[in-house]
Amino acid sequence: MAAKGAMHLGASEREKLLGTLQARFEAHMHRHNGLQWEKVRQRLESHPGTLWSLSEMERSGGEPDVVGQDTKSGEYRFVDCAAESPAGRRSVCYDREALDARKQHKPAASAVELATAMGAALLTEEEYRRLQTLGAFDTKTSSWLLTPPEIRALGGAIFGDCRFGAVWVYHNGAESYYAARGFRCALWV
Fold first, then answer.
1. Which end of the chain, N or C, is less surrounded by CB atoms within 10 Å?
2. Residue 95 CB partners (closer than 8 Å, separation 6+)
3. What does the pLDDT read at residue 2?
């Protein structure tokens, strides 16, 4: 993770990231029917702070791509579209409270904190189910999802995966962590 003052990209990093995002956008047009890369690029260039967040999503294995647009605000929705939960974000518990509650074998970090540090947010259950309509994701892994407060207040957290051709949302203790469970991020630009 970059230091607080380093939340921007140099010109060469910016161009490399934009090239990666464009190639992914063009390779997966079914994720964003009717949208045009040039308009997405213009939006990205007019909001340079979000490029750093997208670069962090990319660096940690998320493979962010556009999955929609808000017609009122003009914002584009980027979501981690890696086939499996991003490799650079696994073996984490749900949030800081869960991390602090662990007495032994603490993971290095929590999903909520890492997403926030990237300037993004965990996918909600609804967003996760929508993502799964665009392909089969998490067929070997699982991803923490933004947990409703009433579930979190009871010590739980939710996660999703895709098995046997179906999307499943489960619960677990928020302090649990597994080598095959990470998290996916979403970002409005």
1. N
2. 110, 111, 112, 113, 152, 157, 174
3. 41
